[in-house]
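Supplementary Methods S3. Complex input for the flavin mononucleotide-bound model.
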Amino acid sequence: MTDLHVTICGVELKNPVIPASGTFGFGREFDEIYDISCLGAVATKGLTLEPRLGNPVPRIAESNAVILNAVGLQNPGVEHFIEHDLAWLRVKTRVVANVAGRTVEEYGAMCARLDGLVDFIELNISCPNVRAGGMALGVKPENVKEVTHVAKCALKKTPLIVKLSPNAESIAANARAAEEGGADCVSLVNTFTGMAVDIERRRPVLANNTGGVSGAGIRPIALRMVYEAKRAVSIPVIGMGGITCAEDAVAFMMAGASAVQVGTQNFTDALACPKIIEGLDRWCSSHGVERVSDLVGTLQMN
Ligand SMILES: Cc1cc2nc3c(=O)[nH]c(=O)nc-3n(C[C@H](O)[C@H](O)[C@H](O)COP(=O)(O)O)c2cc1C
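Predicted complex, serialized as structure tokens:
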């Protein structure tokens, strides 16, 4: 038996596998399929101050090895989450509250509201920001640093993860900006902006025209970005983007990820996360790795 525990920002997880935000709701539907207490943690759907209905349909498009989504942060609002889901979820496993806002101040308010109530707060800085003229806060390092600083100042107890957008000028510069702003950890990648076209209608498939690309097809790019981010900072990194199996998770950990998130694969196979946990145990045992954490950052470049 491999020791699958990992510790991130002083918080111990029973294993490094976390379903990614937006692909697992608040865990209730998946808990009907398997006991989600086997997971290292759960990253919630992106939460906002007020409830949101999200974007018009169609808001999912399928393609080869990837999907596009423009769900648009549909969620019941942070108060509903605290009242209805949080206590239940915390009994099951560690909780990563994924939060978003329309302004830097809203991010601060979300962090203040959730401080001490959850195990981690993960800032989704990929959403279009009112003050940044609709541009996501996650594009330019100066914006990344500012929103991270405001969020960190609102937190006294809960560690702060900043989730980096791959639609950035430089992933290393943004990872460093998050660290300078006070992040305790960075996670990456969020989705890549993309488009699918319905050629018969000569229109984009998604009502929103563009959407975020995720799934197995983005994995090589995500892996490269995780490697670059880890080299740029001394805080822990959580890796994601196209992870489908235990071997993919091993690759992300070797590239420097202390834990991994699994997103789109939960739609393909509802049992993806427990299978990856079992697979990690098997892979480590068959390769003489006693602790899964011993894999982190062991990649040797040619
Ligand atoms: C339908 C859908 C909804 C998502 N919603 C969120 C969200 O609310 N907040 C967030 O930070 N990321 C969100 N993401 C991004 C994922 O958490 C993850 O970063 C991305 O999908 C890459 O991982 P994957 O290739 O394993 O899916 C969403 C992704 C999908 C597919």
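Residues 6-55+73-195+215-295 form a domain with the TIM Barrel fold (CATH 3.20.20.70). The chain has one domain: 6-55+73-195+215-295.
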